[in-house]
Amino acid sequence: MASSKFFSFSLLLFISITLFYQANAQTTLNFYLQDTAKGPGATVTPIIGLPGRDWTFDQFGTIIAVDDPVTMGPSPLSTQVGRAQGVLVVSAKDGANVNAILSIVFTNAEFSGSTLQIQGVSRQHEHYKELSVVSGTGRFAFLRGYTTLETVVYDPATAHSAIRFNVTLRP
């Protein structure tokens, strides 16, 4: 009888520990947005702004459309895994903050058809920015977390940036 109780207790303990670690499991993804702001291959562009003012990336009221390639590495020639599509709104009067609403739409074999929904305030003058991952679809359904952004490459002549996304997800 004692060995039966010990076995039942051990099994219950094992199941509890397994469920605890599954519930607290964390997934980390790293990828790069290839952001080009001018020229015929532009992937970010102002679409509307306040009348009588320049529509720029630091002008209050400017709304910017985004359709950036998402790659595995910082080079624009590295393997593409999806696209970052959405809008940016310059939401601070001094132009320092942008409200970002982005969908990372995966096209690679591992996550094809899945998305991550990212939103929050991006503080343009900070080296590291942090945004919320509010949800996802497909392989990322019901997940949430956060992402840190860092511009790792910027070429002012071509207005091209490579922005590293370090995404941390939890169920």
TrEMBL record:
Tell me the subunit arrangement: Homodimer.
Q: Which GO terms describe its cellular component?
A: apoplast
- Biological process GO annotation list? phenylpropanoid biosynthetic process
InterPro entries the UniProt entry points to: Allene_oxi_cyc_Dirigent, Dirigent
Q: Kindly state which keywords UniProt assigns to this record, in alphabetical order.
A: Apoplast, Secreted, Signal
Give the range the annotation lists for the signal sequence.
1-25
Protein name (Swiss-Prot/TrEMBL): Dirigent protein
> Could you tell me where this protein is found in the cell?
Secreted, Extracellular space, Apoplast
The organism named in the record is Vigna mungo (Black gram)
Q: Looking at the record's lineage, which domain of life comes first?
A: Eukaryota
Specify where it is mainly localized: secreted
| Its job | Dirigent proteins impart stereoselectivity on the phenoxy radical-coupling reaction, yielding optically active lignans from two molecules of coniferyl alcohol in the biosynthesis of lignans, flavonolignans, and alkaloids and thus plays a central role in plant secondary metabolism.
**Similarity-based family:** Belongs to the plant dirigent protein family.
